[in-house]
Automatic annotation (TrEMBL):
Region described as Disordered: 96-158
Single GO MF annotation: ATP binding
Organism: Opuntia streptacantha (Prickly pear cactus)
Catalyzed reactions per annotation: 1D-myo-inositol hexakisphosphate + ATP = 1-diphospho-1D-myo-inositol 2,3,4,5,6-pentakisphosphate + ADP; 5-diphospho-1D-myo-inositol 1,2,3,4,6-pentakisphosphate + ATP + H(+) = 1,5-bis(diphospho)-1D-myo-inositol 2,3,4,6-tetrakisphosphate + ADP
Pfam family, one: His_Phos_2
Lineage: Eukaryota, Viridiplantae, Streptophyta, Embryophyta, Tracheophyta
ATP-binding recorded as keyword: yes
Subcellular localization, as worded in the UniProt entry: Cytoplasm
EC number: 2.7.4.24
Family the entry assigns: Belongs to the histidine acid phosphatase family. VIP1 subfamily.
InterPro entries named in the record: His_Pase_clade-2 (IPR000560), His_Pase_VIP1 (IPR037446), His_PPase_superfam (IPR029033)
The protein's name: diphosphoinositol-pentakisphosphate 1-kinase
Acidic residues bias (residue ranges): 127-136
GO biological process terms, semicolon-separated: inositol metabolic process; inositol phosphate biosynthetic process
One GO location term (cellular component): cytoplasm
Length: 158
């Protein structure tokens, strides 16, 4: 007995290997692809329902989940951009105000303390953002599995 739900995966894998790994000269891959293609021609059109009502129901569920993920990603990207822009504006304001105060120029120790405050502000914003990300783990890609080491990096998923 065979599991026909695996036919599209076998077909996709064979096609990928034929296109991108032809240099490996995998034995009998052409023959396997031809058989998988014949089977896929019958299975894939019915993969998301047999009649129009089933296809609409299944497609609606998939689209709703995808739209939810897209909306959450857009909101998170917007919040990250606002946070980064806010940090940049605070830094520019600090540099402008210190140029105006030439007569009362802050000491080097004072500037170092300001740098510490600024970096702690950055860390606080990152922690707040991490808290937001934890609330939406249902739709977010876990950076540990994606090997993402920088928190500001955006990862596109299919």
């Amino acid at each position: 007995r065979y599991d026909i739900t695996q036919i599209p995966d076998v077909y996709d894998s064979c096609k990928y290997d034929l296109l991108h790994n032809a240099h490996l000269n995998i034995e009998s891959l052409d023959e396997l692809f031809k058989v998988a293609q014949l089977l896929a021609d019958g299975v894939i059109p019915n993969e998301y329902g047999i009649n129009p009502k089933q296809k609409l129901k299944i497609g609606s569920k998939i689209a709703r989940r995808l739209l939810g993920k897209i909306l959450i990603d857009l909101r998170n990207t917007r919040e990250e951009a606002i946070n980064v822009a806010g940090l940049k504006n605070n830094y520019e304001h600090y540099t402008r105000s210190s140029k105006k105060e030439d007569a009362n120029a802050p000491s080097i120790a004072h500037m170092k303390n300001e740098g510490v405050k600024e970096s702690s502000l950055t860390a606080d914003l990152a922690i707040d953002q991490d808290d937001d990300d934890e609330k939406e783990t249902e739709y977010r890609l876990d950076p540990k599995y994606a090997n993402v080491k920088t928190p500001e990096r955006h990862v596109k998923t299919r």
